Amino acid sequence: MVKIDLKNLKVEARKEIKKTDNLKDLDEIFKKYLGKKGEITRIFNSLKKLSPKERKKLGEGANLVKREVEEMTKERAKELQEELRKQKIEKEKIDVTRPGKKLEIGHLHPLTLVQREVEEIFQSMGFSVIIGPEIETEWYNFDALNIPKDHPARDMWDTFWLRNNQKIPNPKSQIPNKSQILNFKSQKLLLRTHTSPLQVRYMEKHQPPLRIIVPGRCFRHEATDASHEIQFYQLEGLVVDKDISGANFKAIIEEFLKRFFKTDIEIRLRPSFFPFTEPSFEIDIRRKKGKWVETMGAGMVHPKVFEAAGLNPKNWQGFAFGAGLDRLAMLKYKINDIRLFYSSDLRFLKQF
Ligand code: PHE
Prior knowledge:
Blueprint: H1 6-19, H2 23-34, H3 39-46, H4 52-92, H5 110-124, E1 128-129, E2 135-137, H6 138-141, H7 178-186, E3 189-191, H8 197-205, E4 210-219, E5 231-241, H9 246-261, E6 265-274, E7 277-287, E8 293-301, H10 303-308, E9 317-324, H11 325-333, H12 346-349
Parallel strand pairs: 1-4
Antiparallel strand pairs: 2-3, 4-5, 5-9, 6-7, 7-8, 8-9
Helix pairs in contact: 1-4, 2-4, 5-11
């Protein structure tokens, strides 16, 4: 008689089933005991060779083990499935309390910030904000400002001339007459070297009294360094009335600087020369005993400029100034190189 240790078989099966950590192995173990050639199946197959008494005893025992193995396998399968489910949930879990990814939001360029602030201050003092073309005619940029051709003063503004003598659109007629064609020829175009052309452009169309500022980009054909760029921003100012003096200018500029820098600023006026103002001066400013920085040209509007705009200089007085917006921004934010404004360097720009 074959001696079969059913008890040991059961213990072995239980051990193996408990140890499995996946359903595939579990299936293999199940087959090992209860598959076609499984150990328990083989016991059943051998029963017919036994005597009825032995057959009954072993048959009953094997049946018991069979049921137990089936039961254990089923239970383990359940456990493993539950584990799988938990793992899946864990993997797919979304933590809704986690902070989201921060979206990068663009922001204004420091020069834009400064321009807007400056506009606000002047608007609160009754000034209108005017803009004009960056491509100018020789007339408005120079001649009308009392800087005739071949005048040495033109050297103050190194100019980007535009190659073509482009026809300037005439709003009145599509077909220009002879004198208009001659006029076009004399209209050499350039990139404006300052915002002063707007003085004449504005006074041609508006009767004083007037108070305007003109922020805008200007260009100069010159070598760049920490305080010079071929493009930069200016702020033109123009005040015209019956009785305007240098004292009015000083008061307005001091008020502006006080509000713009929000701290005590020293200002210094130096006599200077501009063809379109008489007298002319240069305004330097400094903060907290620092270095004097040239920020503005200014003066009383020259009679020739009133004439160019069709106004009688006997009736009107005014002052004009042209400030460097870049220079104001540099002083305000303590920036030591004007070229940074145009570098597109995000490390610089993100600070504002
Ligand atoms: N337009 C002058 C410049 O660019 C500045 C200025 C403006 C001076 C108005 C006097 C009056 O240098």
